[in-house]
């Protein structure tokens, strides 16, 4: 029987079919339960369901088109097979722009075309905390600039993460030559509730499927069990539009690249919606050119304006433009160190440097993920458990996000003067917009070679989160700067109707 | 005739023979004038002389052994040929330790075995300034931590360096199919006076023989003229024990490596004392493994704790240890950016970062050179012209120099815990001394795995230039740290007779 079935669902919302039925064998793995969804326009999706405990199966579907959809259940549970239904898919509600996709090669948009600029944070084990802390985390996120959360399905066993989690996601045992897998339905209901909470706040859930910081064996399950888990998780949460698949954190501490490729194939096959897919490394870069990788998710604990480690150097190599060219995909520095003060080198950046890495990353054409690791007696560190944000960088990251969201979309790495601008990061849109970031450098002036036209030039004080107008300029000009670290110049072409603004004399030192 | 000849000279001092004689042709280039110096022990040096104007030739010699030396002049000026003399070489005076040599592969010592730790600065064009400014520069050096000066022979034409210098070093013209070269004796007398002033202050003169920032043609002279210049300069100043030969600043902006090799051969042949030889690059590293290179002189505008620019990375590559292994020679970062605020990316580092690069370099087994470029109306910037030091880093560099000079010599890159210490720079002497630098990172604690024995641990506050004793520790301990950037730990093995000091409990957080 079908129960509790909605009649309407919004585009990119979740349509859920609930079915009651008795399974033979292991209801999590031994039952075929799926539905084919068909739109009036002829789109067709085959979607797997999952066992939700108490003789209940669910099939969840995210329609990508408004209008009438019909479905038919297919199952080896006789009573369910052939069941049919239909529903109306209506316009998305405000704030629902669909799942995030890659667009313009190096960028992201929601499926409705709205640009999406990831400003992520890490909350690796937040779903494994007690409810009070989870609520505090959600409250913190609501007041934060972060619109992406990196979060593990499996609990974390690591420094500052030694407690047993309230629930384990699954268990497995060998029996008669095969693995008996059992999922903790309560855990997954809890997990998907939090994914949905994020969705309602406009936050993408960058779901980390595997990670090495483990004592329960989740990072070393047999492949058959791994795939049962992936299949179950995909069936449960892929209809949430804010889901991204991050195959692993520090994949290379678990197994080498070649062993992961098959897992990617599996996800590509099972996920009807083609959610974003990436993988994060500890040491060895994954080959992000692989077609199943939608964007490069990189750990890089250092300055992005590095010189090469090789003696045959080119001056001032900017790593993100290099990776963009190498992978032809968006680049997210998903781990660049965390603001904090703990004993580990990856977790004790000053807030200035956390902010700096955001600016470096964004103004060289990439995206950056935040994390926070302030030592605390109670061992609640944001980076993993959530709670309260204590750091000073989020305010500055919010400021940067505002600037980027106000800018024309799809800015690319660009130099006003390739010869002289080796020392700055700059993104822009030729002849229209430039954002030049000076990093720790602190010039008192700078020569700009402006393209044709008149440009409004603003000084951006990244730490003080202030923008000061420097005036209108054209041609080759010398701009006065305050001689302090962490400033940027925002340069915007004047519209014709801006012409009434008085042209200032070129500032000359 | 020989005139004004001393009877005594100290070891590694300059013994000078002055000869009067009329030359046929060009006295700078067409006269053979040299002397063979022989010690009682059988050492023999053939040393070229030079024309010093007004029918005067000089031969300068730096004896490396006390006792009686004899010499005999050889010249194609008949009156001078065969002249003989002798003098006594006496013990060096205080502060005279001889020329600096490479020792222990990666380090420097004076010839008497005293360790020398280069803490250099740049004064590229200071010799081309007016005398008042030169005197101010000397006064500044006297009160500075710097014991090496990078200085050009030729004047500099570049931003903030547009004035015509008081004197040009030389001129040349083509005549009858060969080059007529004339040296400005007054200039070289002036130049060598300043080299000697530095010597008297215990400062090494890292003499830059060629550089590209030129409008007079000195960087594009015919090879024959270049060699006449080198020969003349070597004859004049190689007897000053504090001379180093830096073949070029940014050699690759003048000509490629292969064209410089012959110049190195020439210097090796002409310099009787085997002074240190290096070359500094702009973009392309010189092959510092070449046998004529005594130490790697590197330009590196960035963090030294870089990750490789290559995707096949190893975590936390430390460039100086890598270069040490590559070249098997001492490594000096002779240009890492300058403290200041001018418009160029190489010249506007905050003082904290200038200090940081010294600490990074020194605590990873190398040496670093300072420079200062504060914008000034009068265009007198220390980096090139000298004058007054305005920056805040020299005080901190002095502090570091004191720490290094108090440490056991020849510290090497070392890790107390190779697994966990990827994030710090550390040099030490196994089981005896460790200096761990935390860079911008700011842990509130750190686990140390101390080798056998008891160790005195000091917190070094690099910016505040303070040292705080943290106590005596042994075994694996957790050390409390202040949670601020720019700190180091100095860890020194206790002597047995230190045992009366009360052992503190291990600090635990």
UniProtKB/TrEMBL annotation, chains A, B:
Domain of life: Bacteria
Chain ranges of the DUF5060 domain: 8-75
Family matches, as SUPFAM superfamilies: (Trans)glycosidases (SSF51445)
InterPro entries xrefs: Apiosidase-like_cat_dom, DUF5060, DUF5605, GH, Ig-like_fold
Domain Apiosidase-like catalytic span(s) in chain numbering: 104-385
Residue intervals of the DUF5605 domain: 422-492
Residues annotated as transmembrane: none
Pfam families attached to this UniProt entry: Apiosidase (PF13204), DUF5060 (PF16586), DUF5605 (PF18310)
PANTHER family linked to this entry: DUF4038 DOMAIN-CONTAINING PROTEIN (PTHR37836:SF2), LMO1036 PROTEIN (PTHR37836)
Protein name: DUF5060 domain-containing protein
């Amino acid at each position: 029987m079908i129960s509790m079935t909605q009649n309407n669902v919004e585009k990119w919302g979740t349509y859920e079919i609930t079915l009651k039925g008795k399974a033979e064998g292991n209801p999590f793995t031994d039952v075929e339960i799926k539905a084919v969804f068909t739109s009036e326009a002829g789109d067709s999706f085959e979607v797997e369901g999952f066992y939700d405990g108490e003789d209940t199966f669910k099939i969840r579907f995210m329609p990508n088109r408004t209008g009438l959809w019909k479905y038919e259940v297919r199952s080896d549970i006789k009573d369910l097979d052939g069941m049919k239904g239909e529903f109306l898919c209506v316009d998305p509600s405000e704030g629902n722009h669909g799942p995030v996709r890659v667009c313009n090669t190096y960028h992201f948009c929601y499926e409705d075309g709205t640009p999406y600029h990831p400003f992520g944070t890490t909350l690796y084990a937040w779903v494994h905390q007690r409810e009070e802390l989870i609520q505090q985390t959600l409250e913190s996120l609501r007041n934060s600039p972060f619109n992406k959360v990196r979060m593990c399905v499996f609990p974390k066993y690591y420094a500052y993460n030694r407690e047993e989690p309230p629930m384990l996601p699954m268990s497995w045992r060998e029996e008669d030559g095969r693995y008996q897998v059992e999922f903790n339905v309560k855990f997954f209901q809890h997990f998907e509730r939090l994914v949905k909470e994020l969705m309602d706040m406009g936050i993408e859930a960058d779901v980390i499927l595997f990670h090495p910081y483990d004592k329960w064996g989740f990072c070393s399950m047999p492949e058959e069990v791994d795939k049962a888990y992936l299949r179950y998780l995909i069936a449960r949460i892929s209809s949430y539009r804010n889901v991204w698949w991050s195959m692993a954190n520090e994949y290379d501490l678990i197994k080498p690249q070649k062993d992961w490729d098959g897992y990617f194939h599996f996800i590509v096959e099972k996920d009807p919606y083609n959610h974003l897919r990436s993988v994060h490394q500890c040491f060895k870069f994954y080959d992000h050119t692989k077609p199943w990788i939608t964007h490069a998710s990189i750990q890089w604990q250092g300055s992005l304006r590095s010189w090469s480690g090789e003696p045959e150097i080119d001056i001032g190599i900017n790593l993100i433009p290099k990776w963009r060219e190498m992978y032809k995909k968006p680049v997210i520095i998903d781990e660049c160190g965390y603001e904090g003060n703990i004993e580990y080198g990856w977790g004790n950046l000053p807030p200035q440097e956390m902010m700096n890495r955001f600016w470096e990353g964004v103004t060289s054409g990439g995206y950056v993920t935040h994390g926070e690791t302030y030592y605390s007696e109670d061992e609640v560190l944001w980076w993993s458990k959530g709670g309260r944000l204590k750091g000073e960088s989020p305010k500055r990251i919010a400021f940067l996000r505002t600037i980027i969201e106000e800018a024309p979309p799809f800015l690319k790495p660009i130099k006003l003067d390739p010869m002289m601008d080796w020392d700055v990061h700059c993104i822009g849109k030729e002849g229209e917009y430039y954002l030049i970031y000076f990093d720790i450098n602190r010039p008192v002036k700078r020569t700009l070679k402006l393209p044709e036209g008149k440009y409004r030039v603003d000084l951006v004080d990244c730490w003080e989160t202030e923008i000061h107008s420097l005036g209108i300029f054209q041609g080759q000009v010398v701009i006065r700067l305050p001689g302090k670290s962490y400033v940027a110049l925002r340069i915007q072409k004047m519209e014709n109707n801006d012409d009434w603004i008085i042209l200032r004399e070129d500032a000359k030192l």
